Amino acid sequence: MNIDESPAAPAGTGAGPRLTRKGRATRDRIVAAAANLMFERGVAGTSTDDVRIAAGVSTSQIYHYFADKCALVRAVIAHQTQAVLEAQEPLLGNLDSLEALRAWRDLVVGIQRERECQGGCPIGSMASELSEVDNLARADLVVGFARWETPIRQGLQAMRDRGELTADADPEHLALATLSALQGGLLLTQLRRETAPLEAALDAMLGHIASYATTPSPAAPA
Amino acid sequence: MNIDESPAAPAGTGAGPRLTRKGRATRDRIVAAAANLMFERGVAGTSTDDVRIAAGVSTSQIYHYFADKCALVRAVIAHQTQAVLEAQEPLLGNLDSLEALRAWRDLVVGIQRERECQGGCPIGSMASELSEVDNLARADLVVGFARWETPIRQGLQAMRDRGELTADADPEHLALATLSALQGGLLLTQLRRETAPLEAALDAMLGHIASYATTPSPAAPA
DNA sequence: CGAGAATTGGAGTGTCAACTCCAGAAAGAG
DNA sequence: CTCTTTCTGGAGTTGACACTCCAATTCTCG
């Protein structure tokens, strides 16, 4: 792992040497295998040899495509960020109504239920494991979470612009809170092996957002 | 690390051989040193040799007091759970008003600010790192989080019993959501090195709880 | 005091992890 | 076709890590 920071190297973008079509394929195979293993057993619990076997490549190939285990980890972060965001599409891109938010909540809860509450959040768990250990990885993860937060904020902003939320609803604040609740809910759900914490966290958060709504669903008018 | 479960062994409770006063002292020294290191660098990032040096003991002493690294980890979990709960006392034991909740929020945010947002939650980060790897540790952490959740729930319950919260406020649900928001806020705060996520998450949660209040603070009466 | 238990020191062991090296096989450019 | 670059295989190196072993010392308790 790395501790210092280096401004260069676009990381996820395979910058260095040109890649053949075949080269690109094996590189992807390595990243995908590493991502799976690291999701299941953590970064520290995954050796390059494990990756080697899972990807069906030889030792030298890993070090041909990645300078370090650290570099491989950063590629995995990019891969998982993409995967997480895509798994929530197209809902994530249109979180501009309470119904959409509720559907998104159900999707997220459903995903956890499918995998029996194991593994937690692919990038959340890496954030926890790497924040104090690898500053470059941390920086990548900050960007990854920003890409997650943005569509949430934009959805809320759209609702407010449309007058569906009162003016004192702060989309930035609420988006950050929602993402936090999601992450904490995922953590406790992973720990307890049941979706109750995730559901409680998201329901509370959506309830709070709904309290800013200008057209109340069940309650009495002002 | 362990994967299987064994019902025996009370873990945190030093059961086996009797401990001399001196023995208890060195055992505590080992646990405290291990806790610090694991908080800073993670469980996987802390070797028994690191602990040995930090605690100023010899190799055999660690294995005299702990069967495994796994057993040491469980002792650290017990230690950190206690530390986390005590750090929030006496507020945590009396979370039965909105003011108390707000004071608690300020305390938690203040703690993070003091340590420059580093390290996250001592037991939350262990939960993330160990959930998929060590079932015994996971069980201990479940208990630890339950001990955290209980006073929150009891505070909310007291408010409801006293008629300060409406009947449709579910203390269990809200406590779980609050703990989730806290954990997620801590995770993102650790990642981004700023308290904004934690503040947003807790403020949203307290706002949501306040929406169940029967005596509104700033707004007009019913 | 003296026996037995608890505590300590530190050398040693086997394994596994990250990473290196070099030579050979394919692929693309001209 | 041939030169250059990319890709691949696998043996080898170095260090770290979890854990063992045994002998010496200190403590407790009757």
Automatic annotation (TrEMBL), chains A, B:
Keywords assigned: DNA-binding, Transcription, Transcription regulation
InterPro entries: Homeodomain-like_sf, HTH_TetR, Tet_transcr_reg_TetR-rel_C_sf, TetR_C
Domain HTH tetR-type: 24-84
Region listing for Disordered, in residue ranges: 1-22
Domain of life, source organism: Bacteria
UniProt-listed Gene3D superfamilies: Tetracycline Repressor, domain 2
Keyword NAD: no
PROSITE patterns assigned to the protein according to its UniProt record, in alphabetical order: HTH_TETR_2
DNA-binding region listed in the record: 47-66
Protein name, per record: TetR/AcrR family transcriptional regulator
